[in-house]
Here is the input.
Amino acid sequence: MTTNGADLLELALARVLAEGAASADAVLVESDVLEARVRGREIDFVKQAREQTLGIRSFVEGSKGLRCAITSSSDLRAETVARIAEECVALARAIAPDPVAGLPEDGFAREIPDLSLFAPGEHPFSVDDRIQSARQAEAAARAADVRVTNSEGSQVGSDYSRIVYATSSGFVGEYRTASHSLFSEPIVSQNGDMQRDYWLTVGRSLSSLEDPAQVGRRAAERALRRLGARRIPTCEVPVIFDPLTAPSLLGHLVQCVNGYAVYRGASFLAGRLDEAIASEQVTVIDDGRLPGGLGSKPFDAEGQPTRRNVVIERGRLASYLLDSYSARKLELKTTGNAGRSAASAPRAMPTNLWLEPGSLSLEDIIGGTSRGLLVTELIGMGFNPVTGDYSQGAVGFWIEAGEIVHPVHEVTIAGHLGDMLSSIDAIGNDLLWLGRVAAPSLRVARMTVAGD
Amino acid sequence: MADTPEPTSALPFFRTQFGLDERSLATVLETAFERPIDHADLFFEYTTQDSVSLEEGIVKSGSRHLEQGVGVRAQVGERQGYAYSDEITVERLRLAASTARAIAEGTARQRAVAVGGQGAPVHNLYPLAQAPTEVAVAKKVALLDAVDVYARRIDPRITQVMASLVAQHRQLLIVASDGTLVGDVQPLVRLNVQIIATDAAGQKREIGYQGMGGRYELEQLLDPEAWKPLVDEAARLALLNLDAQPCPAGTMDVVLGPGWPGILLHEAIGHGLEGDFNRKGTSAFSGRMGERVAAPGVTVVDDGTLPNRRGSLNVDDEGTPTQRTVLIEDGVLVGYLQDRLNARLMGMKPTGNGRRESYAHLPMPRMTNTFMLAGNDDPEDILRSVEHGIYAVSLGGGQVDITSGKFVFSVNEAYRIEQGRLGSPLKGATLIGNGPDVLQRVSRIGHDLELDRGVGVCGKDGQSVPVGVGLPTIRVDGLTVGGTEG
Here is the structure.
């Protein structure tokens, strides 16, 4: 990483202002990326690169507010930077003035805390070592059982990024992040039935990752237990989500508490602030400053300090997720949740968002369920944030008298997200971070399962 | 714009913009062959993407993104090494080539590579007078303003209108060690309209979405004859859903309407017939070539050569000309979708389906435009034939588990069918089925084949590419409908 980021941003901002912009910001993202996959004993692919993108956002004075445009480029030659700066201002002049548009007026981060997002001793990493991890996971998955007959492979990813952000009002900040992952997806077969499943580990440092052989074995165990899956009759029963599927419910919640969906009236939770929207057992927190968190960052995409926000407090909707634009639209304050890629406008996004764990193990929750469905994988896009209606394809296990009886597939589960959140009646202690949104096992008291 | 190239050849553009000639390109490939590899290729891309979007009655934002880069790939056996760079210089290319070739061990005898030729693809499916990214932004803004005004006059219950117009101009150059040298210029335009309706009591909200696009002149989207029906449709869906009843749950007969419901084919069988999964034996369709996988009368094709369609390409992202590939003929599995690597490993021919999202991605077998050929049944008769079921007219997205064959897609507009008559509109729900047998349950095929309006995006292994689908009205006996009413 050789570019002097701050200088480049200064050049871009100066050019935009010279073209007549009233204010502007710019972001540079540089990344070193590696991806490699091993399948069986063979390397499937190895992919490496250095990427860079510069994004410029300019605001031009209009009669009733500011006109806003964004340009970006992966070509950072000086003449291209000058050109996209000029194009940005020219484009803004063609856009309607928006009385609410603009940079945050104040509140910029004064300090840039070290959030352990990068382990300096691990960079540059050895490509061979990472491929070796994939080999170990793959070998362990394949050796786990004779019924492991094939695989989609075991894949590693490593990414080192540097993010530099500057505004025309004088803020300049930068930070570095790393993320590493290992994913294994074996295929098992028996009597003509073929099933797959996966396991993965993700972290900011290589040393925080789960042991590769264990990743492979867990993936194989998950696939093996799906053999013999069958359908079940249509019914209404309690549905348990495991720590791999429960975060998807929070993902849907995030869509609905996003400031943009709220001010547009495109969320069933618009206008519900301070109301009870979930069971009293439910507390959801967004915190951008968890050390080593996969969604942590010292400042957000508008230079505002990240912070801890309680989104749902014991069932009550306590806060939306906001950047400065959606906050102004709703006459609220930003929650420091602006996120953007170099090529997009800031938007409200979660940082590290999780549902507070309870005291039960998943086994306890299953044991306390007389008849129900444990869901271990969901497929589809069956959630409507405007209405809250929910309907997804599901894979999992049928529970009778507190015990798992057989694997289940080719069924759907359906309900309304509001009803689902309100009827959560058991929460696990098994919070697992595999991304920016995490949730422990949880049980929804009643959903419709469609099958035979 | 002065440097706009001829519509079907990107070669002159890359030559002048980056000072690349056949000799320097050959030198880069020769660098890759310093190790014992089977094949190497270079993929150059220079893409401009513009968008403008409207909400709350004003066009609030505009953007322009420039993506340039080059990917260098080396193949040996099943292995692929890939390195890419945002900087397009011969020095960078040679560096990338030595990174990519590292998947092969040892050294090889020096090999001379020759590249040459016209560089123009055999097809010319989307010749344009003007690149969509060169249309004045004021025209695009005026279109979105007109959409907003028009939509709000349709009904007082319409409370929010969101619209966007996206234009892409993608220039490619593919150079390979077998001598391939081919370029393409791929335009792509798309108009999206989302309408939110709120009932009179202000309690209930619903959303209607419609989009259209393809590889054609952006001017076509500016025509009110084109966009007004689209806006009408989005508004109709939002208003209709305000009165929708909960969808039933359970297994029943389903009639799928023509056009976009072809996503059923894309999910249920299309992915399962991609060469990579079949070469690895991980698809529910693996080893089933020549077997009956659909009812008699069902013929499914993938066709990348339809003029101006969103899923069409003159050449795929490996330089292979696109073609019409029959996947299922009269119910029997007859074809796979192939890229070069999987075709070579399976001893088959590439089918022009090697696609990638960008220079930052490895190509994979992907669909283009996938559809079922028309049958002989009258669509009205098909509806009348159902005693108890649902009629699914408009669908959302879908997904498939390749290995188990289970697939889902979501329904946005549906009606109950009782004794052959259409009943009340139903709320959206997910439908689930099993790929290898769902087409065996197709009992009626309409004569009304339609292709979708040009909005499909297919995701695979983290890569998105534009695709098309199509379907005549069909009846499927026994699909599981994921509603809430028992």
User: Anything to note?
Assistant: Chain B touches chain A through 81 residues (CB under 8 Å).
